Amino acid sequence: MAAVYSGIYLKLKSGKTSWEDKLKLAHFAWISHQCVLPNKEQVLLDWVSHTLVSYYNKKLELEDEVVEKLWAYLDNIIHSRRLQTLLKSGKTVGLSFSIAQVINKRLSEACVPKLQQNIGTVLSCSSGILSTPSLSIIYTAKCELLVDLLSQLSKLACQQLAPEDAVGPQLFSVLQLTFAQYLLLQRQQTNPNRVFGQVTSHLLQPCLFLRHLLAVRNWTQGDDSRVRQHLSREIRNQVETLLRAGLFQPELFSSYKEELLPEQELQEKKKGALKSLLLPVNTVLTKLGSDFCQPALHGAVVAGSVSLLYKLFLDSYCKAENHLVCFHMLSRLFGCLRLSGLQQGVMEDMLSPADWSAELLALEQLLSLVLSNDVYNVASDRIRHKEIQFGFYRQLAQVLLSHSQASIPAWFRCLKLLMSLNHLIVEPDLDDLVASAWIDADVSEPRTKKPQEALISSMFQTYSKLRQFPRLFEEVLTVICQPAADEMRLPVFSAALTLKLRECLLELPPSQILDILCLFVEKCQTLIIPAVEGSDDMALKLLSLSLVLHAFLFNMRSLDDVTPSPVILRTQSLLAKMQKGIIQPLMELLQAPRREEEKSELWLRKASDSAFLLVYTWIEVDTLFGVSCSKYVSPAAEVAGVVTASAARHSGTSVFLPGVEEQCWERVMELANSFATSKYCLELLTLQNMKTILMQTEADLKTLQHAAAFILESGRSIMSRRESEPWDGDISAINDLTYPTAHWHLVISNLTILLPYISLKDVEYIADILLETLVLGQAQEAVADQEPSISIEKVSLSFIKSSFFPEMKVLHCAFLTSLIHQVAGVLPSAAKDAADLPLQQLSADRIPWHEEILAPCRPVNPLEAPSESKLLKDELSLSWKTLERVAQCVVLLAKSGCPVILKEHQLERCLGLLEIVSFLKLDSLLPSDSTRCFLVLLSLISNTRAGASCSKLLLLKFLSTCFHLLRCLQAGRNANSIFKVFHASDVLETVMGSQLTASKVFTDVLTVPVWAQYLQEVQAFLENFLQMIIERRQSVRLNLEKIMSFLMSCKADGAAKSKGCKNYNPAAGQLLLMAFTTLCHVVTLYLQQLPEKKLQSADVLAALLEPVVLQMVRTVEHGLQNNTQTQPLPLTFIPSVTTLLKADLSHAVKKGWQKEPGGFLDQPRVKLYQKFYSQILRELPCAGDNLRFLQSALQFLVVFCSVPELYPGKETAVTVVFAIRKLLAGPAVTTQVIQSMEVELTEVLVQLLGNCSAEEFYTIMKLVLQGLEVKNVWQQNAKEVLSAVTLTKLLLSCPLSGDKEKAFWFASPQIITALAVLLKAAPSFLNSFHRLVVSVMHEGRQKGDGGSTEELEVPLRCAHLVERMYTHIAAEMEDFTVFSAFIVAQYVTELQKVTLHPAVKNHLTEGIYHILALCIERDIKFLNVSLPAGVREVFKDLYEDYKRYHKAKKQGEEKYTA
Q1: How far apart are CA 1122 and CA 1433, in angstroms?
Q2: Looking at the chain, which terminus has fewer C-beta neighbours within 10 angstroms, N or C?
C-alpha cells in the first residue's frame, strides 16, 4: 500500500509525468479503494487547487484542454457522493481561499466579450462550493470574495439577458444561490457603513441593471421554464432585499438626514463637531449617473431604479416625523430622471416616445409612493415648510402640461396622482389640463383611453365635491370655443365619462347644473349660431357644445312635483331659449335649397348632426318633464296649434318649424338621411313619436306602421354592406362605421314596440339579418375582443338567447325559415334536386308558415266570415300538407340509401347552424314550427353522411348535437304534432336504420368519450320517443310491434335484414343492444302500470318481448366473443345485461324458482351473467377515472349480488368487497368520485351484507379493519386508509341484524381506536365517527326494563372509547377547531332524540365537554341562533352544565399547573 501511495503522490508531483497521466492517476486515486493515502481527499483537493492557482498566477503553463480537465476534476470531487459522505461523517475537508480568487478571476474574464469562454464547469464548481457548508467558508469567511463573486455573476447574467437568445438555467441557479449566501452574510454584518460601501462599490450597478433586464425581458418558450417562472422573480426579490439591507439600514438614517436637510446640519454643527459624513445620497446618485451599461439602455435602467430606491427608502424610514426627509429624497431622485432637465429647458428634443414612456412610468411610481405613504401633508407643508412640497409638485405639473404626451397612459396617471395629492397643484393650469388631457387629446387606444377617463372622472369627482362644477365647465366651454387643435375633434364624453357625469349630476344642486346649461346655451346662441353657416370650425364647436348639452340634460335629475318652483321656471326658460335661439335657427338653415356639391360639406354635416341631436334631446326631455312634473309647462304648447299635415308625419319636429311645407321637409329629411348621427337621431325621434302615439287613448295605426317602416328602411341599405365597428353606446360615438351597430341595437331593443306594426316582409328581413350576424359572430368568435362595447353580433346573440324572442311568434317562425334555408344552402350543389329537397320545401317562401300565428289575431268580418274562414283553413292545410309530403320524402330517401355526402367544412358549418338552433327555446315552438324543426333534424340524421376524409369525431359530434336537439323538441308542449305527419314506427325505423348503416365508420373510435356521448343521446331520444308513443295511447301495440319487428330484423353488421353476420360491426352491435335495452326498459315499465282489465294486452306484449330478449342475448354473446379479455367491456353492454338479468329474475320469481333453485341455475344465460360478473370484477379496480362505467357496473352488481347462488365457483360476497376495496384504494379515485357513486356503493353493500353468511361477514369486517391498521399510516398508504374509512361509513348505512350486528358491535371499539390514529382526513373521519356516535347513543339508550349488564357491556366500552376520541380531537385542535361547532351541533341533535343510560351518558358528556372547550364565543352564538328550537334547549342545558362543572374544574386545575 505504501508503494501505491508513494508512487502516485510522486508521479503527481513529478514534472516528468504528462498531464494526461497525472489526471488519470488523480481520478484513479479518488475513486479507488486500493489507493490508501493519508488524508487522501484533502491531498487530492490541494493538488488540483494548487495546480489551478499556479496556472492563473502565471507560475505554470498548461494547455487549455488540460485546464478544462482540471476544472472538471475539481467539479467531480466537489459533487461526488464520496465527499458528501465524508463530510456527513464529520471529517474535515477544505479548500484554500486562493481557489475562490481563481474562480472569480475566471468569471471576470468571461465578462469581457472578446474573451468569452465556456464557464459551465466553473459555475458548477461554484454551485457545489456554495451549497456545501464546509467548502463555502472560503467565501463566507472573506466577505469581499463573495461580493466579488456576486458582482461577476450579475454581470454575466446581464450579458446573457441582453440579447434575445434563449436563456439557460445554470447561471441563474448559481446566481440565486450566491444571493442567498450573501444575504445571510449581510444580516450578520455589524458595521452598516462597511456594508453600504460594499453594496455601492461593487453591487449596486450590476444589481440594478440585472433587475431591469429581468423585468423588461420578453420571455419566450425557448427560455428555460424554471428561469422564466421562478428564478427571475426570486432574483428580483433578492436584489430588492440586498439593496434595502445594504443602503437603508436604520443606523444610516442620520447620515441621510444630515445630507438631505442642510439647514438642520448647520444647526447641529453649532452644537458640536460632526463625525465623518458618509454622504449616502450623493454616493448612490453618483453611481446611478455613471455609465454602467450601454448608453441606449442607461436612461431606462435609471428610470426603473429610481422608483425602486425610493420605495426601499420609504419602507425603511417613512414615519410621520420623517416626511420632509422623504420628500427631499424624492426631489434628489427625481433629479436623476431626464424629465428634470425639462424644467431648465434642456433635453426637450432628445427624448423619444420610448424614453418618455419610461420616464413617465418612473414618475408615476414615485408619485404613487408619495400618495400611498402620506409623504405630502398639505397643512403641514403650508404652515411649517413654506409650501416647499407644493412648489415642487406645481413645477412638475407645469412640465407635464407644457409637454403633452397624450399617447402615453402614464402621462394621464401622473396628472391624476397630482390631482389626488392636491387639486390646487393643477388648478392654475386647469385650462391647459382640460385642453391637452381631454378636449384636444387625440386618444383612441383602449390602454390610453382608460387612464384618460380615470383622470377626467377624478376631475369630475373633485370639482363636484368642492361644488365648483361650473368652474370646471367654464374652462371646458373656453377650450371648446378656442380654434380646434384638430379638424375632427373626438367626442367630449365617452360612455364611461357619461356614467361618471351622471353620478356627479345626481349629487349637485339643480341651480349649479342650470348655471352650466345656461352658460352653454348662451355661448351657442351668441357666438356659434350666427357664424356657423359655411364655417367648419364653428360647426365642430357647435357639435361639441350640443353633445355637452345632450349629456347634461339626459343625465341630470328629472323634474318632479317636489322640485322647487324657481328651478322649474328656470328649466322652462332654458328649454325655450334652446328652442328659439338654437334649434329653430338650425332647422331653418337646413331647409334652405343647396347644390349637390354643397351637401357633402363638413360644416353642413356637423350642423345637421347638432340640429337633430338637440331636437331629439329637447323632445325627449320635454316629454319626460311633462309626465313627471305636473307644474311643468312645455314651451312647445305655444306653437302646438300651428302644425301642418305634412310636418305631423315627421317625427314630432314640427314643434320647431310650424307651417313648413312638404318641399322643405323633404330637403331636411334628405340631409338627415345623408349623415349617420342625424339619421340615428331621426330614428330616435320616430321611435319617440310612436311611444307618444301609443300613450294616447286612440292610436293612429297608419302612422305607427309608417313610423316602424321608416326606422327599418333607414338602416336597410347600410346593414346589407356588412361593414361595422363596435359602439360604446354613447350617441357621441356614432359615425359611418358605428351607425349600423347603433341602428341594429335600436331596432332590437325596441322590437316589442316595432313588431306589431311592420309587414311580414320586414319581419323576414329582421330574421335574415339576425341569422347573418349570428353566423358572422361565430366566425369572429376566436378574435373577439373582451371590451364591454356593443357589436351587431353581440346584440343578435343576446336577443336570441333572451326570454322575449320566443314570445315574438312571427319573428320566431321567420327566423326558423331563414335558418332552414341556410342549412339547405350548406348541402352540396350536386344534391339540390335530391336529398336536400325536404329542406328546400321546409323553407319555401310560398308556404304560409306564419298563418298558425296570425290567424287567431285577425278580426273577422261577419259579412265575409265564410270565405275568410275557408281561406285561412286552406292556408293552414297547405302548410300541413307540405309537412306531410316532406315527412314521406325523408322516409323514402332514408330507405333509398342515397345520402348526401358532406365534406368537413360543410359539417362544421352545419354544426355552427345547429348551435344557433340550440339557442332557441325549442320547447316553446308552435306545432308547425316544432314539426318543421323535427323534420330538418331527422333529414340531417338519416339522409347525410360524412366524406371519407372527414373527422369521425366531428361526425359523432354532429350526430350527437342533432339527437340532443331532437330531445329538446320532445320536451316541448307541441312535441306530439309530429304524429300528424308521421307514423311513429316510421320515425324509429328511419333513425335506427340510418344509424346502423352509418356506424360502419365508427369501429375504431368506440373507446373515445364522444362515442359514449353519442350513444347516450341516441338512447335518450329513443326512450323519450317510445314514452311519447305510450302516453299518446293511440295504436300503442301496433307501433311497438312494428318497432320490435324492425329491430329483430337488424343484424350487427350494420345493415337491416342481413342474412349473416360474418363481418361483425361492434359499433352496430352496441347501437342494437342499446335499442333493445331501451325498448325492454320502456315496455316493462308500461306493462307494470297497465290496469288489470288490460292484462290480455300485457300478455301479448310480454310474448312479443321474449324474442327481443333472445335477440338481445345473442347480440351480447356475439359482442363478448369479439371482445378479448384484455379489452374493457363496452359501456353499452352493462345496462343491457343488467336489464336481461332483471327480466330473468322477475320471470323466475313468478315461477317460484326459490322452491327449486336448481331449475333457475340450469338456464344457459347464467353462464353469460357469471362471465360478465367476472369481467366486471377484473375491470372494477382499474376504472377509477371512468364514472359512467363504475355506476353501470355497480348497478349490475346490485342485481347480481341479490342472488348469492349466481356466484361462480367458490366466490362469495367477500370477493366483491375485496374488489370494491381495491377500487376505493385506486390512484384515480378522488373524494368527488366516491360521492358520485356513493348511492350505488351503498346499494351493493346492502345486497352483499343482507345475503351473505355470518362467516362471510366476519371476513368482510377483517378486510375493513386491515385498512384501518396503524401500519398504513406509518407506511403512508393514504389510499388504503381512505378506502377503509369509506367502507366503514358505507357499512354504517347498511341495516344489520342478528349475529352480523353483534359482530359489528364487537368490532366497533377497534374501529374507534383506529380512527384515533387516522385524524388527518378530518371531514371523512368526522363523518364516520359521527355515525359511530349515533350507533353508541342508539345502543346505549335507557330501556324500560333497565337492560341487562351483558347488553350494556359493549355500548359502555364504546362510549368510553368515544370519550377518549373526543379528548384526542381536542388535543389535535389545529386540525379540528373549524369543526368544533359542527361536532357539537351533531351531538346535541342526536341527544335530543334519545334518553341515554346514565353510565353511557357520563362518558359521552365528559367527551363532548372537551369539544365545547374548543368553541369560541362566536361559535356559541352561532349554535344558539342556528339550532332548531327543541335542540337549542338541549344545547343550552349542556352548555350550562359545561360552564358549571367542567370549565370551572379545568380553570382550577390550570391555576396550579406548572
Answers
A1: 67
A2: C
